[in-house]
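Let us work through a complete example step by step.
Step 1: write down the sequence.
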Amino acid sequence: LHYPLRRQRQMCIRDRYMYQMSATTTGSLPGGEPLDQEMEATALFSEDLGMKMTIEMDMKMPGANDSMTMAQEMYMLPRQNRMVTIMPEQKKYMQIDFDDALFEEKRKQNNDPRAMVEQILNCNYVSLGRSTIEGVEVEGFQTTDPNYMGALMGQIDVKIWVDVKTQLPVRSEMDMQMTNNMHMHAVIHGFAWDVSVDASEFEPVIPDDYTTLGGGPLQMPAMNEETAIQGLKLFAELSGRYPEKLDMVTLMSVMKDIAKRSVADGHQPEKDDMDEHVEEIRKTLAPVMGIGSFYMSLSQDQKHPAYYGDVVAPQDADQVLMRWQVSETEYRVIFGSLHAETVSAEVLAELEKTLPRP
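Step 2: predict the structure and record it as tokens.
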């Protein structure tokens, strides 16, 4: 039943390819703002040069009859561990630098088909049997395992079909319920393998009159325990509590609210400087996003993490706030006081018995 995907692990997927992606996101953001967005994208990959994705988004704004169209170019550059996003309508660009581990995590999140197949391999999945797509005989596989997205993106339903001859992906579909009111449906299709690429295609061209968000490159914090503790501490200082969940939508919404509150409470910048001011606040809050990235990496690495921010507060010094497995018999624990210890599985079980009930 699982032979085609297991074989995929051992083969070398061709290192120059492209695909198309369509996505529709509807519902409302955690803050209540309605969301109705359609996206079309074309992605070009090279193993050594990186990724270039051209994106067009149509967003329907509240109270408006017409939608707003936005275009972006996004580059993932492995030689620099860097992501660059160019926004022509705004005449702006954003540069984010990563460490090795976090760059690999971002590569997975950007629908690299190699990572898509590996992610399903690490989850509970079922076979959809054989069928034909665009004249190609394929075998399909499906997972609803939340660990496919690091257990941080709500309910998911992912299907992927691979060519039974080449073992290469042909089509992928994903439905994701990111919050109670936000749903995304995405389709990846039109795969082309062994395409010709030119190195210049992976060199971002930024006109002289474009300005950078945040006033310069954003350095993302390392995806490790230290960053997680730093982010939890900062969150508690700003809000008096720990985040209830570590999913990316919740963390991004909280960051947005904190940024808005900072602008409202402090000096009001000129309109032309607002984007830079808010981005500077987000740069300060980057460790908060690092919590989610770290937790996602633990889940995808099968470290069996758990997080109890919905019942553990900063004053609960000796309660287990977060934990993950470090060996067959030991777990690393971050307590409510934000000190960390390594404990045995037996000790952890006793500690978790005392957790407050939600």
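Step 3: interpret the result. Residues 131 and 137 are 6 Å apart (CA to CA).
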